Amino acid sequence: MPQITEIFFDCDNTLVLSEELAFEACADLANEILSKQGIPDRYTGEQLIKDFVGQNFRGMMKSLQEKYDFQLPSDDLEAYVKKEEDKVIAKLEAKAKPCIGANEELVKVFEAKKYHLAVVSSSALRRVQASIKKVNQDKYFDLDMVFSAASSLEKPTSKPDPAIYLYALDYVKKTAAETVAVEDSKSGALAAVRAGIWTIGYVGSYNGEELQEEMSQRLKELGVHIIMKHWSEFESCMQYIESLPAKDSAQSSSL
User: Fold this and answer.
1) Structural domain spans, the chain
2) Residue 181 β-bridge partners
3) Most CB atoms within 10 A, among 27, 136, 148, 172?
4) What is the pLDDT along the chain (255 residues), one digit of tens a residue?
5) If DSSP codes are grouped into helix, strand and coil, which group holds residue 6?
6) In this structure, is the dihedral angle defined by the CA atoms of residues 199, 200, 206 and 208, taken in order, positive or negative?
7) pTM of the entire predicted model
């Protein structure tokens, strides 16, 4: 049986309902970039979520450049990354809310002191910190236990690259076998699975039972070990993972 001592939480739409707010800001900048490139296509925030959920803005811009076959000068890209970060943070500080049930479970797991807790996100560090502070979750994580693929790494990247998970494991001096990740997106789940971490796929932030079922199937296909539809299921999901034989770490299941 795995001896779990560490939990890595994704932030956006796992702990904090932030994706819709963030993608509103991203769409404005993506459309500005497309316009300057003479490309007529335009995105809404909802369309960006559909195509790029789980990626940070840098990852989205890389995908856009590949899709439309253009290249932004590096200085221009960095300027847009900074502008996006400021726009998103302003929206989050005004409107962000916790995922339903997340705060209730965080306080329980924090007070039990059975696990060490960290946040592992693709988003910029300032954005993650603003999100968890707005919804009163920052008290559950030490200042140096918030990891960002956009800010913490020497070379910025985005999930599904597992680099940020591998970095976080090294920083907290834990192995993948001792760790559980909670992820809501395909890119995030794939990053955790690629890092060899036991993974809970959270689908509670998706609107409607049909979409939740679709995402559950997709996440299971990527290798998550169990699906969590509501944060009230978190404790039973952890118990399930802790009951698995280590040799079955590649298997997945669903409540």
Assistant:
1) 6-17+97-248, 19-95
2) 8, 199
3) 148
4) 789 999 999 999 999 999 888 888 889 899 999 999 999 999 998 888 878 877 888 888 988 999 999 999 999 999 998 898 899 999 999 999 999 999 999 999 999 999 999 999 999 999 999 999 999 999 999 989 999 999 999 999 999 999 999 999 999 999 999 999 999 999 999 999 999 999 999 999 999 999 999 999 999 999 999 999 999 999 999 999 999 987 544 444 444
5) strand
6) positive
7) 0.84
